[in-house]
Specification:
Shape: elongated
Mean pLDDT: 75
Strand order of the largest sheet: 1-2-3-4
Helix content: 10-25%
Number of helices: 4
Number of strands: 4
């Protein structure tokens, strides 16, 4: 749980500090959650303003958190020795399960405060490099000195009686082990081809019966010629 820094405690920088604290990722913990009250307000509500583990435990119980992380700002120096435009920023991490302060770091800034310096301060307090998610740029590599045109490069100085490191034994390169080639399993026997059953004999073709002649009507003789008529003479 992050207890935000009051904006009036460090105008112009308090919001940046709160944003960085809210991005802190601690080992074994979920993303940080920002409380709605600052450390000063929580101290008033718990009626315990002493910087002791007992007071911090009451505040952790008040905000219902196992660990609390906050920033506090003090004016650099005391009395007449206070520096103008100087501020001392302290980051504190308290674990209620121990209970006790498990991380603390402070730094005095004069003038504008660089964002990289705040990241470095928070990382030192929580003990986790890159806890705010910021990537610190690597230090610049000094340029390699070059020789002027037409001149030879500077010779490397050889130290007299310099101890020569012993040669490291070279491990011979063995060919990679190959798995033995086992014979393949024999093919499964094929089913023998049996002769097909003979075809059933066909029925013999018998001759068909002769067709019976159709009966014809009998022919009767025609009627006899008419008898001649004899005329009787008158």
């Amino acid at each position: 749980m992050v207890l935000p820094l009051d904006k009036l405690a460090l105008p112009g920088t308090a919001e940046e500090i709160n944003a960085k604290l809210s991005r802190v990722k601690l080992p074994g913990a979920d993303d940080a959650i920002s409380a709605s009250t600052s450390m000063e307000t929580a101290q008033l509500q718990s009626e315990c303003a002493e910087p002791t583990d007992a007071c911090y435990s009451k505040i952790a119980k008040l905000v219902e958190a196992d660990r609390i992380l906050w920033a506090q700002v003090d004016a650099a120096g005391k009395g007449k020795k206070k520096k103008k435009n100087a501020a001392k920023i302290e980051i504190v991490l308290f674990d209620a399960e121990k209970p006790g302060v498990v991380g603390r770091a402070d730094e005095t800034f004069v003038g504008p405060i660089a964002s990289v310096a705040l990241d470095r301060l928070i990382d030192a307090a929580v003990g986790v490099p890159g806890a705010t998610g910021a990537v610190t740029p690597p230090p610049a590599t000094p340029p390699t000195p070059t020789s002027a045109p037409g001149t030879a490069p500077p010779a490397t100085a050889v130290q007299p009686n310099a101890a020569v490191p012993p040669l490291q034994p070279v491990t011979p390169a063995y060919p990679p082990a190959q798995a033995p080639a086992y014979p393949t399993a024999p093919a499964a026997p094929t089913t023998p081809a049996y002769p097909t059953a003979p075809a059933a004999p066909t029925a013999p073709a018998y001759p068909t019966a002769p067709a019976a002649p159709a009966p014809t009507a009998p022919t009767y003789p025609t009627a006899p010629p008419a008898a001649p008529s004899f005329a009787r003479p008158l």
